[in-house]
Fold these 3 entries.
Entry 1:
Amino acid sequence: MSLTSIISSASAALTKTQVAIAVSNTNVANAGDASNSRKTWSASANTSVLALSEGQIARTTNAYLSRTAIAKAAESGYAGVVDQHLQSYDAALGSADGGDDVASLLDAFDAALASLAASPTSSAEKASVVAALDDLVSGIGELSDEIQALRTEANRSIADTVDAINAALSTVADLNDQIAQGAATGGDVSGLEDQRDAALGELSGLMGVSYYTTADNRVVVYAPSGDLLVGSTAASLSYAASSTLDAASAYPADISGVYLNGKDMTTSLSGGELGGLIALRDEILPAEQASLDALAADLIDQVNTIANQGTAWPAPNVLTSTTAVSAGDAFSASGSVRVAVLSADGTVVSTQDLDLSAYATMADLVAALDGVDGLSAAISADGELVLSADDPSAGVALGALDGAVGADGEGFSAFFGFNDLLTGSSAADIAVSGALGSDASRLPVGALSDETALAAGDIGLASGDLATLTALTAALQGDSLSGAATRFVSGAATLVSSAAADAESAQSAYDYALSRLQNETAVNLDEELALLAQYQTQYEANAQMISMARELFDALVSMVS
C-alpha cells in the first residue's frame, strides 16, 4: 500500500470516527428527552474515498412497541380525564364523616323528626326539622348543580381538546413534509421522525388514532371511525361549545357535535381525552343526574303524600294550593274529604264531609268548600285555591278519608298540595315550600280525626297527635328513601373509585409500554460513554497513522532531494 493510500484511508476513517463521535455526543446531550431515540451512524462503504454522503444516521426503533405505546396513550388519556372530573364529583358528594353526603343529611332530617316527636308542640324543634329538611334538599340541589357544572366543564374542555387535536394533526402533516423532503435529498431525518412519533403519541392521547407509514416515509392517520385525518394534508375538526349545560341539555338535541368535513363524529370518538370528555358529558354524569333525580322525585312524592294526610297543630288559618287551577277546569274525583274549622286548641268549630263525586268543575268544588260554615274558598289571580277560616284565630284542617282525585287517584290535599313540604320534581328544582320555609309552625305533625260522628265541640286535632310525624319517620327509615339514599351514595362512591382504579391501571399500562420502548430505543449513557472512549481510541490511532505516514513521506522527500 502506498503512503498516499494510507493517508487517504486513515483520513476517511478519521472522518467516519468524527461523525460517530458527533452522533454519540448528540445522544448524550439529548439523553434526558424521553422522546429522543438513540441515533447510530453506519457507513455504506469503507474505501479510500469514503465521505459523509456514503453513510447514514439511523434511529433505534421498534415498530410494534411504538404502536403499543401509542394505543396505550389513548386508553390512559380517556381514563385519566374521566378520573380527573370524577374526583371533583367525589368532593361534591360529601362524606359520612363530614355528615354532608345525601344519606347523612337524610339521617339528620330523621333525627330532627325524632326530637320533635318528644316535644311535638315546640316551635324550636319544628324550626330544627325545617332547617334539617332545607339542608337535605340544598345538598341534593347543590350536588345536581355540581354535576351540571362538571358537564359544562367537560363540554368546554372538548372545545380545547379539539383545538389541541387540530394542532397535533397539523404538526404531523408538517413533519411528514419535512421528512419526505429530507429523505429525498439524503438528509438526516431521524430527529424529525422522533418529533413525529411524539406528535402521534400526543394525538392518540387526545383522541385515539390508527396509522401506517407509506413508502416515502409519510404517516397516514385515521380517526377511530376510519375517516382520514392526515394524508397529504391535515384535516381539521370543528366544535361549537355551549356556554352552560343544565340537566335537560342533551346531545344532539341541545349540544353540537364534533364535526370532520361536515360529518358528525361524536358517537365514534371513544378514545383518548376527547372520548372521555364526551362520555362524561353524555353518559357518565347524566346517569348520575338521573339517579339523583329519581331519589329527589321519590323524596318529594313520599314526603308530600304523607304531609298532605295530616295537618299542623295548631291548624293554619289559611291553606293555599301549590297546584294552579281555574274555575272552568274539569274536576274528576271519588270518595269524600273532611273539611274542618278548628279553634287554636284543636276543638272543632265546624266540620263537613264533602262527596267529591258531586262536583264536575273546579267552580263547583270551590262553591261547596265556600259553603262550609266558617270557611271561605276562592281561586286567586295566580290560580291558587285558597281556603281560609273566617275567624282569624281559627284554622283550617283537611282529613283524607277515602277521597281520590284525578287520574292518579291522589288524596284531596295531595292533589292540590295544600300541605306540601317540598316543591319541584327533580334534584335540579327540589326546595322546601315557601309557606313552610317562612313559617315552621305549618309543619304537619298530627291528623284531623276521622271519627264518623265528629262534630262541633269535639277535639278534632290533639296537641300530642303524632300520626303524620310517625308516618314521615317510617318513610324515611324505609328502604325506598333511606335505602335509596344509601345506594345512591354507595353507587357514586363506587363509580369514583372505579374511575381512579381504571386511570391508575391505564397509566401503568402506558408507562410499562413506554418503558419497554425506551429500553430498546432510548440512550443508555453508560453505553454511549463506552462508545465515546472507543471512538476516541480509534481517532487517536488513525491520527497517529496519518502522522507516521506524513513523517515517512517527509523522510522520502528529504532523501530524494
Entry 2:
Amino acid sequence: MRTYYDIDLTTHSVDARPLHGKDVVLAGRYLIAKTLVERGLAGVDPLSPENPLIFSAGPFAGTTFSNANRTSVGCKSPLTGGIKEANGGGTFSYGLGQLRVAGFTLFGASPDWVVIHLRKDGGIDFDDASTYLGKGNFAAAEMLYARYSRKVAIALCGPVGEYQGLLAGIAFSDKDLRPSRLAARGGVGAVMGNKRVKAIVVDLDKAPPFGDPKKVTASIREYAKLLREDSVVMNFYNKVGTMGMADYQNYIGGLPVRNFTGGQVADVSAGETFKMGGDYIGELNTARGGDQTHPCMPGCAIQCSNVYFDAKGKEVVSPVEYETLGLLGTNCGITDPDDLAQLNYIANDLGVDSIETGATLGVLMDAGLAEFGDVQWMIEALAEIARGTEHGRLWAQGTARVGVHYKVERVPVIKKQAISAYDPRIVEATGVTMMVTAQGADHTAGNLPRLKTREMDLETLMDLSLKQQIKVAANDSLGLCMFGQTVTNTNLEFLTDAINAAHATDLTPEFFEELGRLTLYYEREFNRQAGFTAADDELPKFFYEEKLPPTGLTARFHGEEVHPIYDELQPAADALEPSLER
C-alpha cells in the first residue's frame, strides 16, 4: 500500500488516499496526463491557482533498484501552453518511497510562502519559508538542511521560479545533498512559485514494504547485474556519461553552434581538437581529481553523472551534461569546458533549465546584445535574471518570447520551447519526436540520436519515433531513468515479474507498451483540447531555408506531414484503457 496526498494550499489541508496494487504502479507520467485531461484543465491559465502541480514516484521508489527513483512533475506548461511532464533524478522520490508515498498534487496557492515538510511519522507541516526567499539554491538548501537535518530529500523552487520566470525548473537533491538534479523543462518551477511553495522537504526513513520482499531484493541485484553486463551502459553512460554525445554530434555535424548556425566546432577528422566533449573533458576532469562515474540517486549502477573539478582540484559543479554542453555551451559560442562549468553552476544555483536558458542567451547574442563566446556577458545576464531586473524578467520568459521581443528571425523553438541539442536537419528521427510531442521540443520524449536517416523515408522515421516515444513514456511512468533502456526495454518479463512481486499485481509484459501508448494518447488529447494543431508541429522557417555547415543539409519534413503520428492511438486507447486499469 502507498498513500497519495491531495494538498490544498489555500487552506493548508491534506486529503490522504490509499493506493493498492496496480494503482501504485500507475502513479507516474501516465497518471499526470490522465488526471489533467479528466479534470478538463486544458483551458486554465497555467500561472493561476487552478493549475495543479503533480509530483509522482515510481513503483520501486525508496529502494536501491537502479535508476528507478526519478520523480515526475506535471502540469499545464506556462512556457508552451500545452501539457508538461518534467522528470529528474536524485533522492526526492527515494524519500517519497521510504515514506510509502506514491505522489501528491498541489492544488490552489498558499496565502504565504511555505516549506511543505513530509515527516516520517506521517504528518505534513506547512512551515514559514520567508527566510529562504531570494536565496540561490545552494544557500537555500544548506539552510534547509540546518533546519530539517541532512537526512532529508528536497525539491526546491529557485529565485527565478519565485517571480515565475519561465526558465525555472524544480531542483531535487542528489545523493550528496546538492540541489542539482532538475525537473527542468516547461516552466514547472514557475508553477511551483505561483503556488508560493519554496521547498518540499521529505524525511528519509527506510525501504518500504513489498508483497514479496525476498523476490524484490533478488530483482534489485539481478537488474544491477544486467546493467553492468550491458555494453551501452558501461562503455558509454558509465565510462563517458552524457557529455560523450557531444563528441558524436560534433563529428556528424548535428551540434548546436552559435544559435544553430553551425553543426560542428572542430573537424576532428582533420586533426582538430574538440574540447567540449566527453573524451576531452573526461580525461581533463579525472586528471584534476574529478569524478566521472557519479550516481545521482542511491543504488544506481549506471552512474552517468559526474563531478567537475577546476585546475586547482576543487569542485565546480555536478553534473556537466550533454544538453548543457550543447545549449549553454557551443550554442553560445563557448569552447572551453571551464567556462561552461562556471555557467552551469550558476544555472543550477538559479534552478533554471540550461537548455532553455542557453537557447535564450543564444538568441540574445544573435540580436546583437553580445558577441558569441562572451562569457562575462553571459555571467552578467544570468545575474540580471537572478535579481529579476527589468531585463532579467524579460529574458526569464524564455527563447520564444525573447525572440519576438527583439525581432530575431532565427529562434530555435517548437511549441515555444527551445529545441534540444540535436539539430533536426541532421538528427532527423529525434527531430520528428521534438516536432510532434505534446511536451514541446523535448528530445527526452523519444531520442534516436545515432540513426543514419537520410536514406529513410518519412513513414519509416515516424514509425521509429513513435515506437521510441512509447517506450520512453512507459519508462517515465514507472520512474525509470531512460539510460537503462537497453536493459529495461529488452527484459520486460523480468521487469513485470519484479513489479508483480513488489505490489501483488498480475501484470503481463504487454502492459509496458499499453502504458506508453495510453500516456501518449492522453498527452495528445490534452494539447488538442488546448487548441494545438499541425501548425504547432512545424519547425522554425530557418531550418528549412538555411543549409547547415558542414553538411549543407536542410530540414525535409513539415508539421502537417508528421502531425498524424498519433492518430492510431485513439482506437488503441479505447481498447487498452479497460485492460490496463482492470
Entry 3:
Amino acid sequence: MDDEATTLGGDEKYDLAKVGAHWQQELERGQRYFKSWVDRCTKIEKIYLQQADQQSVKRRFPMLWANVSVLQPAVYARVPQPVVERRFKDSQPVARMASELVERNLAFTADDADLDSLMRAVRDDFLLCARGTVWLRYEADFEPLDIGVEPSNAPGADIGGSPAEQITDERVCMDYVHWSDFLHSPARRWKDVTWVARRVPMTDEEFDKRFPEGRASLAANGAGSNHGTNQTERAQNEGKTYVWEIWCKSENYTVWIAEGSPVALEVSEPPLKLTRFFPCPRPAFGTLSTGSLIPVPDYVYYQGQCDEIDVLTKRINKLTDQLRLKIFYPSGDGSVSPAIEKAMRPDNDTVMVPIPEWAAFTDKGGSKAIVTLPIDEVQKVIVACIEVRKQLVEDVYQITGISDIVRGDTQASETATAQRIKSQWGSIRIRDRQAELARFARDIVNLAGEIICDQFQPETLMLVSGIQLPTAAQKQQVEMQMQQQQMMQQQAAMRAQQMGQPAPPPQPPQLPPEMQKMMEQPTIDEVVQLLRNDSVRGFRIDIETDSTIEPDEDAEKQRRMEFVQMVGGFMQQAGAIAQQTPMLVPVMVETLLFAARGFRAGRQLENTLEQVGAQLSQSATAPRPPPEPTPEQMINLKTAQVKAGAEEKKAQLSVAQAQIEHQATVEQARSDMAAQALQQFQQQPPAYQ
C-alpha cells in the first residue's frame, strides 16, 4: 500500500485507492444532484446559440438572445476597480502604506489575469444558466540559491518549492470555470457546502508535468478521457485528460483525481491557507430557493411564451410565402389565352396589349376572363398573428422586468420626468443582479488580496507596486550614522572644554533629502508583518459601487477635481481664521486631514499634509517674534528716538546745571563758614594775656 499512499504532515497517510473510490462516489452524487439543471442549461445554450437545423433557425424569433443582449451591459459594463482602505481612517503610516501596496498589486493582478474577460464570461453564465464561477491559484517560479545564501522567509513548503530555492516570480491566477465543470456538495446554503470541485482539461504534457507517476494509473484503469457527445466537444477534448481538483473543507485536504479513475492521483494539504478555505468565491447565483443551491435560469419563466412566439413566427413566415399574385384564366381558347398570358408577364412593360379576337374576349366578360387568388384574407391573418406575437413579446418584457425605457423604446410626447420614473422602476428588477455581480467581483478581489498578503514576498510587493520602502537594517544603519555624528559633536565639545575654549553649540544630525524621506517612511518589514497577521490586518478591500455598472471614463479626474476644490476652499477659509486665532491651527489641521482621508484621490498627499500640518501646528503654538515695522512706523520711531534723545540731552544739561549750582552753593557756604570762624578768632583775646 505504500505505492498508493501519500503523506500529509506527520505520520498520517491516505490510501489513494480508498480516497479515489470515495470521491468518485461523491462526484457521481453531485452530478446526479445537478443533472436536471445541467440538461436544462444545455438546451438553453443551444437555443441561445441557435444551434439547430438551418430551416428551424429561420423560423425562430431570437427572444432569448435579445433579452440577454439587453441585460449584459445593464448588469456589468466594465472591469471593477479595487479600492483598499484602512478600517479606521486615522494617522496610521504602516496601515496606510500597506493598503497602498495591496491596492497597486491588486490592480496589476486584475490587468494581468484579464479580470474583465472573466467577469464577462461569468456574466453570460449568470444570465443564461443562473450560475457563474471563477477559481483562483497562486503560482511561483523558483531558482536554486547560491551557496551560502539564506532563503528569505522560504515559503516553498507551502507551494511546492524547497528551502534551497528562492522565488523569482509570483502571481495570482484567475481561471474561468464553465458552468458544466463546477460541482459542490449538495446543500441548502453556501455556508453548508463541505467541498467544491472543478474539472480541469489537461494536455498530455501538462498532465505528465503535474503528475509524473499518474500516467500508469490512467493506463491501468482506462480513465481520464472524455470524448464528448457531439463533434464540437470531441474536437475540443481530443488529446486532453480531464482531472477533478477537489477541495474538502471537512477533511482539510485537496484531492486530484482523473475522471472515471478509481484511484486518486494526489492527496495533499491545501496549498493556500484561506479564511474561508475554498479557492473560489460564492458563485454568482441567479434565482435560488431556500431549499437548495440548484439555480433556476430566467429563461424557464418565459419559455412558454417564447415557444408560442416561435410558433407564430413560423406561421407568419408560411403565410408570407402565400402572399403571391396567383391568376387563373381560361386556357382552352387559343385566341384569348396568349394575350392574357402576355399581359401578366412580369417582364412586360407595354401598356397596350392587342386582343385579336375582341368579340370572344368581350363575350367572356372582359376583365372577368381572369380570376386572382384573394390575398386580402391572408394579409388579415398575418396582421392578426403579428399583433398576437407583439402581445406575447410584451408579456415577456413584463416577466423579465425589461421596461421600454431600458430597451430605448419611448414616445416623443413623454416628459423627462416620466421617462426618469419609468427608468427607475424599470431598473428595480435588475438591481439585485447588479448587486450580485458586484458582490462576486468584490469576493474575487478579496481572495486575490488575501493570497497577496499571505504569499507575496516583500520584493514582489515593492516591485509590482513601484513603491520602495526601506528595510529595518537600512534604517538601523542610518540611525547608527546619526549616532556617530552626535558622538563626534560630543567629542569636539569635550576637546574644546579641555583647551579652555567655549564649546560649539550642538547641531542636529544632517541627512541627505532622500535619507530624510526614507526615515519618515515605515519599513517594509513592518508592512509585511501587518499583512501576514490576519488578526490585526488594519484594512479592508472594497469596490466602487458603480464601477461594474456605469462606465465613467472621467471618474478619476472628477475625484481629483473634487479633492482640489475641497482643499482650496478649506485653506482659503482657514487662512483668515489662523491669522486672527493662531490657537485654532491644530484643530483646522486635523479637520483638513479628516476630510482628505475621505477622498481616495487624497491618499497620496496624506503623508505630505500630515507633515505640513505638524509644522504649522508647531509654528502656531511657538512664541512669535515682533512684527517688522512699516516705513511709516520706522519714520515715527526715528522721530520719537530723536525727540527722546533731545529730551535726554536737555535733562542731562539740567542735571549738570543743577549740580554746578549745587556745587557753587556748597562752596559759598564753605567760604562763609571760614570767614565767620576767622572773625570769631580775631575777636577772642590772646591766651597769654
